[in-house]
């Protein structure tokens, strides 16, 4: 007599990659709104940086799902530091 295989119960879906991508979307809005303060060339550089971080986050979806949140928070920290440094050192203003 053959032994029947029992299906394993489904694993719970981890929220970390989804939360990280939500934060990446929020960071995109911050980077896009930088045009109110920063010059156009700085906004373009910021958006290229965001795109590189987004590609990194997408590549880490399965292998490092919790680090996507760290990447997103780091993207927001870089945005904040860039605008503060640009305002204080380069005279960017609204």
Describe the structure.
- This protein has 94 residues and is an all-alpha fold.
- The mean pLDDT is 92.
- The chain is built from three helices and no strands.
- It has helices spanning 16-32, 40-59, 67-89.
The average pLDDT is 92
Number of helices: 3
What share of residues is helical?
Answer: 55-70%
Structural class: mainly alpha
Report the uncertain regions.
Answer: none
List SSEs in N-to-C order: HHH
How much β-strand is present in the residues? under 5%
Instruction: Assign an overall shape.
Output: rod-shaped
Specify the biggest β-sheet.
Answer: none
Amino- and carboxy-terminal Cα gap? 78 Å
Total strands: the figure is: 0
How would you summarize what this structure contains?
The protein has 94 residues and is mainly α. It has helices at residues 16-32, 40-59, 67-89. It contains three helices and no strands.
């Amino acid at each position: 007599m053959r032994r029947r295989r029992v299906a394993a119960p489904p694993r719970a879906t981890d929220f970390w990659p989804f939360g990280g991508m939500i934060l990446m979307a929020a960071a995109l809005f911050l980077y896009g709104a930088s045009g109110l303060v920063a010059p156009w060339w700085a906004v373009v550089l910021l958006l290229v940086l965001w795109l590189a971080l987004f590609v990194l986050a997408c590549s880490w979806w399965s292998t490092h799902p919790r680090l996507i949140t760290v990447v997103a928070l780091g993207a927001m920290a870089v945005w904040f530091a860039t605008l503060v440094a640009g305002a204080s050192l380069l005279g960017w203003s609204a």
